[in-house]
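User: tokens in, sequence out, please.
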């Protein structure tokens, strides 16, 4: 049986912007708990199989989420920056995480419903729609959080339940 979709039909929301931000913020809250679960030194230094320390993955997430939503809301593009001063202090990373969460909430409400289907080039280099960019932000976070779960388990630490968002 073949299923086809007709793009000429009237578009309906499958998920509302409110549902999407709540879903994402659930993931962000879980990732924050994963960051908290790491011992300080391991957060910055522990690696397996050539993967980066989780702190470096979190820098990537910080470089994408808040700035990406700000760009979507304002239309002002900036280069991707994945480097933030943290002094090898997990508390500073958590502070940056919370600031990014606030930025996401601030700029999210400025995104008009009709923008979600709009084609964009996020950070001046990644083409897609607003929806696909946001889905990438979320998927990338989940991907790196999965790596962090492996790290935590290798350290003998039980990570937060993945479904408790």
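Assistant: Sequence out:
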């Amino acid at each position: 049986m073949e299923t086809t979709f007709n793009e000429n039909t009237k578009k309906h929301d499958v998920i509302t912007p409110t549902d999407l931000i709540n879903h994402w913020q659930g993931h962000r809250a879980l990732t924050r708990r994963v960051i908290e679960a790491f011992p300080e030194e391991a957060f910055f230094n522990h690696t397996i199989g050539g993967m980066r320390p989780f702190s470096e993955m979190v820098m990537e997430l910080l470089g994408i989420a808040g700035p990406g939503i700000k760009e979507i809301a304002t239309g002002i593009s900036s280069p991707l920056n994945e480097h933030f001063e943290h002094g090898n202090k997990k508390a500073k990373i958590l502070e940056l995480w919370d600031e990014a969460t606030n930025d996401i909430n601030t700029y999210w409400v400025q995104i008009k419903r009709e923008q979600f289907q709009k084609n964009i080039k996020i950070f001046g280099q990644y083409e897609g729609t607003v929806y696909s960019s946001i889905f990438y932000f979320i998927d990338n976070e989940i991907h790196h959080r999965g790596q962090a779960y492996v790290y935590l388990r290798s350290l003998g630490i039980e990570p937060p339940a993945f479904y408790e968002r």
